[in-house]
Design goal:
BirA Bifunctional Protein, domain 2; binds biotin; single chain; alpha+beta; SH3 type barrels; seven-stranded mixed sheet; 260 residues; five-stranded antiparallel sheet; globular; 5 helices; 30% strand
Amino acid sequence: MRTAGPSGPVTWPAEAIWEAVAPALPGFTVEILPEVDSSNSELMRRARAGRDEPVLLVAERQTAGRGRLGRGWDSAAGASLTFSLGLPLAPADWSGLSLAVGVSVAESLHPAIGLKWPNDLWVRDHKLAGILIETASFGAGARYAVIGIGINIAVRPASGLSTPPAALAGLLPGIEAPAALLRIAPALVRDVQVFEQAGFAAFRLRFEARDVLRDRAVTLSDGRSGTAHGVGEDGSLLVHTAAGLQAISSSEVSVRPAAS
Ligand code: BTN
C-alpha cells in the first residue's frame, strides 16, 4: 500500500502483513492513516462504538500521541513508527501483557535491544520505544485490547528531553518504518495469541534475558528505592528494598536506574 506520507511517498507492506496474520486471526485488516490524533485513541473510540474487529492501525502522523502515566508521545512523521494493534482478547490473567509485547517487539528487531520494566525498549540506557496498552469492555466479560507501540526509527535531536532517545537505525542502518513494521507485526499477533493461551509464563525467561534493570539500583516514583531482582510469575518487578523484597505491580509506578 502506497501513501503520500507527510515526508514523501511511503510504501507500507500491508498485504504481506495481512497474508501472514489473517489465517490465524479471521477478520484481520491493516489500515494506514496519514494522520490521526492517536492510533490508540482511534481504536478505543471504535471499540466503545461497538467495533471489535481485529485491526492493525498505522498512523503516519499523530497529532496527540499518548504515552503512559498521562504523558504525551512525541513522534516525528517519517522518523518514527507509530501503530496500534486492536483485537478481542480473553486471557485468564492479563498481568504481564505489556512485558510480553515488549519481548515480542525486541526479539523481532535486534538482540541488542533491552527491556526496561514494565514496557520500554532500551538501547544502552536510551529509550528506543514505548508501549501503551488499553482495553475496552464489550459484551459479557469480553474485552478489546488496544496495544499501541511507538518506535524511534531515525536519529533525532533530543530537544527538551533529559536523555536523547535511541533510534532503530542506529542498530539497523537504513531501516525505515515499513520494514520495521513487517518484522514486528506478524510475530506480535502470534505472541499475543500465545499470551492469551499461556499467559506471562511463556515470556518470563525471554523477558529476563533482556531485563536492563536486573541487579541494578533503582528508584521508584513513589519514593522507594532498592535493587531490582528480575520479575515475578505475574510480571511484577521484584525490588529488594530496605523493607525487604517487594513486588511492584502497579502500572502507575515508574522506575528508573538510580544515578550512579
Ligand atoms: C510510553 O512509553 O509512555 C508509551 C508510548 C506509546 C506510544 C504509542 S505510539 C502509537 C500508540 N498511539 C498512541 O497515542 N500511543 C501509542
